[in-house]
Design a protein that fits this description.
Blueprint (H helix, E strand, L loop, with lengths): L1 H8 L17 H24 L6 H4 L21 H18 L1 H6 L1 H28 L7
C-alpha cells in the first residue's frame, strides 16, 4: 500500500533523466543554417583573395550575348519595349499556376472526387486566362 501511494504522488521520471523542452529537435536545422552561412562567407571572402587577377578591358565590359556592347540601345533612346515585360509576366503567371498541379499529382488518390472537381476548376481558370491573353494579342510577338 505504501509503495502504491508513493508511486501515485510522485511524478514519473523519464528513464534517461533528461527532460526535453522540445527545442532540441531544431538543433540540426540551426546547425545547417550556420554551416550554410559559414560556407557563404568563406566563399565570398576567399574567392577574390585566391582568384586570378588578370584584368583587361574586355573582362570589365558588360557582356551582351556575344555582340559588341553599345552605350545605349539603338531604338527608343534607352527604352525597352513593353512586350518583353508582358512576356515575362505571362511566363511567370502560367509557370506558377502549373506548379500547383504537382501536389495534386502526388495526392490525387487521397483527394478523391473533391480533388478531381477542384483540379478541373483550376484548369478551367487557367484555360480562361490563357484564352483571354491569346484573344487580347498578348502572345503575338511584333
Amino acid at each position: 500500500m505504501v509503495q502504491t501511494f508513493t508511486a501515485l504522488t510522485q511524478p514519473a521520471q523519464p528513464e534517461t533523466g533528461i527532460v526535453s523542452t522540445g527545442l532540441g529537435s531544431y538543433l540540426p536545422l540551426v546547425l545547417l543554417f550556420g554551416l550554410a552561412a559559414a560556407f557563404a562567407i568563406f566563399s565570398a571572402t576567399l574567392g577574390p583573395l585566391l582568384g586570378p587577377r588578370r584584368y583587361n578591358k574586355a573582362k570589365l565590359e558588360a557582356y551582351e550575348c556575344g555582340i559588341e556592347p553599345s552605350p545605349q540601345p539603338v531604338v527608343g533612346g534607352g527604352r525597352v519595349p513593353v512586350a518583353y515585360y508582358l512576356t515575362a509576366m505571362l511566363f511567370i503567371l502560367f509557370d506558377i499556376e502549373m506548379v500547383f498541379l504537382y501536389p495534386f499529382a502526388v495526392a490525387a488518390d487521397a483527394l478523391g472526387v473533391f480533388g478531381l472537381v477542384e483540379i478541373f476548376l483550376f484548369i478551367a481558370t487557367v484555360g480562361f486566362a490563357y484564352a483571354y491573353v491569346w484573344r487580347r494579342g498578348g502572345l503575338d510577338w511584333n
